[in-house]
Structure formats: structure tokens, C-alpha cells
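Before the break, one more example. Copy the sequence into your notebook; we will annotate it together after we see the structure.
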Amino acid sequence: MGKFQSKVKRNSSKYRADSHAEESAPVQTIQQYSRAHNDAVTYIAALKSDLCVSGGKDKAVVVSNWRTGTALKRFVGHDREVSKISCVFGSNRFFSASRDKSVLMWDLHGKAGSAQKFNGHQLIVTGLAVSPDCTELVTGSRDNTLCKWDVESGQSSLKTAVSRNLVTHLCWVPGESYVVQTSEDKTTRVWDTRDLQVAHTFPLKQYIQMHCDVSEDGRYCVTSSNGFGGQGCEATLWDLRQTKDIVCEYKGHLQSTASCVFLPKGMSDTPLVATTSHDCTVKVWERDTAALVLCVAMVPE
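Here is what the structure looks like once it is written out:
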């Protein structure tokens, strides 16, 4: 579900699950699998119901079966660590961005090398969003630019720059020609991919916006903030239909909230949002009430 960062010892194998209904819960042992990467995992995304794609500091992209913990295929092509992964759920194609300023496309059943390469940014690529039909790609970078690409040709059709817009994440709105983008300038923007122009800007937040996600129905957007000592560190729910005010905030992390996602329908009777934080916790919230449903904390041995 995006970026997981922790200062916990690598051999840690125990986690504590807490909820708003229970002050304490028994320590649970979590099944540990063989490592998919030779260094830290920097990003992860779901490809199919049983497959995930991860990128690492070892410059590799790995497809794994998360149910069995088996690394199925390893892709190598970047010169520096992988910064982001993006894919259309259920497809065989996925994309990786890197500190080497490039984006590569891979095919699950294709050759070991990349199927396409996208070059055009001057700094690390920090945002990737692929259209639902997998024909268009939008990338963002710390060079303040967004680029739109034709997937088949690998050519850039549009490029736009916004001063101080250090991109942190991009997410495509399902069923629409829009992408949501978070930035280090504390702004969340909605871009129209047809002309790569800003269609809407949400009210400015107090802290850097680290990550974003859009609900399956395309109605809501959630963003997460950096912070420290409990200041900032929240996730924010926005309504993409009225785009004016905050719907609600999910507060409770003590350090930067690194990522945020809408959990799939069917997991609960009520819509859920999950967040990860540098405070070594993953929290699950009721989307509409911001009530804390579950907190899983990594505990060092």
C-alpha cells in the first residue's frame, strides 16, 4: 500500500494489534517469508488478487505471491533505487520509477528486460499514474514537471511545469480523465490529462502532502501529511464532487503519515481507509466517521 518506513530492527517478527475497543491485545506472531529484495523495499502495489509488485533500493522490481510469500519473477533495469510502482489491477503490465530519472514498463509474462522506457525528467521521478485502459501514463518529478506519455510509443505528448511543485505522488481517478497529485508545496491538485492543466486545487494544508489515493467509485480522495510529535501526521478525506471543504481527518499518528489507501469493498460493512506512518504503525479507519477500527504496531524484540 505504498511506502512503508520504519526504524524497527529488521529481525523483528512480532506485532501488536490494538483497536479503539480494546486497550491492549495479545502479541501475535506474523508469518515471515524469504526476502524478495537484497535491500529495503521502497514501494509496493497490488497487481492481482494474489500478486503484488515491489520495488527496492537494490534497483530491482519483484512480482510476488503475497499469499505464499513466493517471489515469482525479478526484473532488473534501473541504475538506481526504485521510487514508485504503478499498475492497473488485474492487468499484466506495471511501471516503475527510479532515482535514475527514468520510468520503465514491464510485462509479467514478457521478457526479463523492460517492455518500454520513458525518459524526460531531470530529477528523481516521484509520481506515476496509469490510465485504466493502460494506454496513457502521467509521471511527476522533483523537477516540478508533469509529463503525459503514450504507453505504446514511449513518447511524451505533453509536459507542464509548476513552480515549487515538487511532486510526491500521483493517482488516476477511475473512469475519468483526471489525476490527483500531492506536493511538497503542501498543495493537492487535480489535473485534466487531456491538456495537462490544473482543473482544481484543494485548500492548502499546513504540512507537506506525502501521498494520495482515490476511491474505487472516483468520488473521494484521501491525502496524508508529514509532521512530528503528533502535529500534522494526519490523513485527510476530500470529496472530488464538491472539491471545497475537508470531509474529515484521520488523526492519531505521532509521526509523518507516509501513505494512505482506500481498502477494497467487501472487507467491511462500512468503507475503510488505511494509513501507514513513520511511527511504525498501520491504522484502519472508518472512512466517513474517522473512527479508529484497528492499529497494528511493529514492536522490536
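The two ends are 25 Å apart (CA to CA). DSSP finds no helices and 28 strands in the chain. Try to locate both features in your own notes.
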